[in-house]
Amino acid sequence: KQEDNSIKNDEIDEVDELIEWTQCLPTTDEIIEEDLSIL
Question: Radius of gyration (Cα) for the chain, nearest Å?
């Protein structure tokens, strides 16, 4: 049963990392504004 727990924890860690990574990405609006300022 402990092994099952560690597997679930690993999956949760991966999801947390994914959420953190997506939060670090700029929003679409920010990307559009940057593109316009380059032009």
Answer: 18
The strand ranges marked E within 1-39 are none
The whole-number pLDDT of residue 19 equals 78
Q: Please enumerate, as own/partner, the contacts of 31-35 that have beta carbons within 8 Å and a separation of 24 or more.
A: none
Quote the tokens at residue 34: 């940057």
**Alpha-carbon gap, residue 13 to 17, rounded angstroms:** 6
Residue type, 17: E
pLDDT tens sequence across 1-39: 567 777 677 887 888 887 787 776 766 777 667 777 766
Residue 27 DSSP one-character state: P
